[in-house]
Amino acid sequence: MTALALASTTVYFLASTGHLRALARPVAGRADFTHSIAAYQHLTGPQFEHAIADLARRDPAVRTATVAGGSNDRALDVLVQLTDGRRIAIQCKRHAPNNRVGAPVIYAVNGTYRAYHRCDQAVIVTTSSFTPDAQRANADLDHPLRLMDGRSLARWASGGRPPWGA
After folding, report:
1. Are strands 62-67 and 87-93 parallel, antiparallel or unpaired?
2. Whole-model pTM?
3. Contacts of 27 by beta carbon, 8 Å cutoff, 6+ apart
4. How high is the pLDDT of residue 89?
5. Cα-Cα-Cα-Cα dihedral of 157, 159, 160, 165, to 10°?
6. Other CB atoms closer than 10 Å to residue 6's CB: what's the count?
7. Nearest to residue 80, comparing CAs of 67, 92, 65?
8. Model confidence at 7, in pLDDT bands (50, 70, 90)?
9. DSSP codes, the chain
10. Which of 1, 94, 116, 145 has the fewest beta carbons closer than 10 A?
11. What is the sign of the dihedral through the CA atoms of 52, 65, 79 and 84?
12. Distances (CA, A) of 52 to 47, 82, 141
C-alpha cells in the first residue's frame, strides 16, 4: 500500500510540474539532456530509485526490477533480473551536478554486489558525474563496474541502451 501511495504521489508530482513529459520524451539527434536530468534531480532519493527501476523495466531483456534501497541496503538500490538469468545490482546516486560520486562508492558497491547480493554485474547510476579518483578506482578493479553519469542516464531515458546492454 505504501509503495502504491509513493508511486501515485511521484506520478502526480511529475505530471503537475511537467517533469513526466521530460522523463518520457524521446530525444532525437543532438539533444540537450538538461531537462531529463533536471527531472531526475527533482525527485527524492527513494523516488529516484523507483524511477530507475521503472526505466529498467522498459527493457525487454528485464524479467524484474525491484527497489531494494533503504537504510542498510549494502549498496543495492535496485535489483534487476534479466531474462537470461543474470542479476544486476544498481546503486543510485541522485546528486547535484557539482556533487560528483567518489571512490568510496566504487569500493562499497564492489565489496557487496557479488559476495553479498550474488549479482553478476553492478552499475552505479548518478545524475551527476564521477570523480577522477572514482574512475581510477573502477579501472583498477578486476571486474570494473558500469558507471552511468547524468548524460548517459539521459541517453538511456531517451531510448538508449541500458547499462547492461552496452
Report:
1. unpaired
2. 0.79
3. 33, 36, 154, 155, 158, 159
4. 97
5. 90
6. 15
7. 65
8. very low
9. -HHHHHHHHHHHHHHHHTHHHHHH----SS--THHHHHHHHTS-HHHHHHHHHHHHHTSTTEEEEEE--STT--S-SEEEEETTS-EEEEEEE---TTS-B-HHHHHHHHHHTTTTT--SEEEEEESS-B-HHHHHHHHTSSSPPEEE-HHHHHHHHTT---TTT-
10. 1
11. negative
12. 9, 15, 25
Which position has the grid cell 578486476?
Answer: 142
What does the pLDDT read at residue 166? 57
Residues in CB range of 163: below 8 A, 6 or more apart: 88, 90, 123, 125, 146, 148, 152, 156
C-alpha cell belonging to residue 40: 531526475
Q: All 3 cell numbers of residue 94?
A: 541522485
Considering all CA atoms of the chain, what is the largest pairwise distance in Å, rounded to the nearest integer?
Answer: 45
User: In Å, how far from its chain's centre is CA 62?
Assistant: 14
Which set of grid coordinates corresponds to residue 95? 546528486
pLDDT in tens, 83-127: 999 999 999 999 998 999 999 999 999 999 999 999 999 999 999
Res 72: pLDDT: 77
The residue to which cell 501511495 is assigned: 5
Q: Side chain identity at 5, as an amino acid letter?
A: A
